[in-house]
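User: We ran a pulldown and think these components assemble together. Before we commit to crystallization trials, I'd like a predicted model of the whole complex to look at. Sequences follow.
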Amino acid sequence: GAVVSQHPSWVICKSGTSVKIECRSLDFQATTMFWYRQFPKQSLMLMATSNEGSKATYEQGVEKDKFLINHASLTLSTLTVTSAHPEDSSFYICSAGGLKETQYFGPGTRLLVL
Amino acid sequence: GDSVTQMEGPVTLSEEAFLTINCTYTATGYPSLFWYVQYPGEGLQLLLKATKADDKGSNKGFEATYRKETTSFHLEKGSVQVSDSAVYFCALSGNSGNTPLVFGKGTRLSVIA
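Assistant: Here's a predicted model for the assembly, 227 residues in total across the polymer chains.
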């Protein structure tokens, strides 16, 4: 089946630094990828839709200058959390559209900002 | 807009008990419906799906039937195991892999031996 990977799986950083998270579709091409955020014991909230070769579409309330998304190729999308603060600590999950209405999710990246 | 409502958890069951997790949806058109499972510390895994009315999705002993008349997609399993302990998310999407999913809030299931 289709596989989506994320890197890193865990990251701890100091407040004020930037963190880049990679999302890769390993065995299929994805023109569209999605970035979700999940707070502890809560559901996934869509942050943005990443489109290959064009600007990402952000959901209402998500700061595009804070969460930079780049979808440079059909197999790679990156999310950069700029000037991270403790309130940005969360579980970030990407997904990529596959065949027959199915989305495949990455294993997630847990970010802790100290 | 589209939405998914799941029964509130947590749900605690003994091993071999029958499981039902209710899910209803509101959507325009004819969405596809999914159940995803999230084990502790991990990402989401697709458990099963149904793309049209009366379809039944099934996997690993879990089943759910797409009921258009009641706008429901309840998850059932006849005999749960300790290894089924996880959070279960009901979700819907448009009929394209390029459409984001709308998730329910998730239901935490704990199965005790």
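The two ends of chain A are 37 Å apart (CA to CA). That may be worth checking against your pulldown data before setting up trials.

User: Thanks, that helps.
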